[in-house]
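User: Just a sanity check before I run the rest of the batch. Below are the structure tokens for the first item. I only need the designed sequence back.
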């Protein structure tokens, strides 16, 4: 199995988490929404697989390139 790290493209905060660890994901599925400068930025699955670990929770601050979650494929 391969592990894919999903990273943040922006500095901001986690506004909403749509998936939980253990959920099956298709490529393009919405995992969470980040908020940065009053804009909502969707974080989508880059690959199909299983969401193995969430590394952030709602209201957490995130940095650019921070790992948000891991997908096993």
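Assistant: Here's the designed sequence for the first item:
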């Amino acid at each position: 199995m391969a592990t894919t790290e999903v990273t943040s493209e922006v500095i901001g905060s986690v506004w909403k988490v749509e998936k939980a660890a253990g959920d099956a994901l298709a490529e393009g599925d919405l995992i969470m929404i980040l908020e940065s400068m009053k804009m909502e930025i969707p974080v989508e699955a880059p690959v199909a697989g299983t969401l193995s670990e969430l590394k952030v929770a709602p209201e957490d601050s995130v940095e650019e390139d921070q790992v948000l979650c891991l997908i096993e494929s």
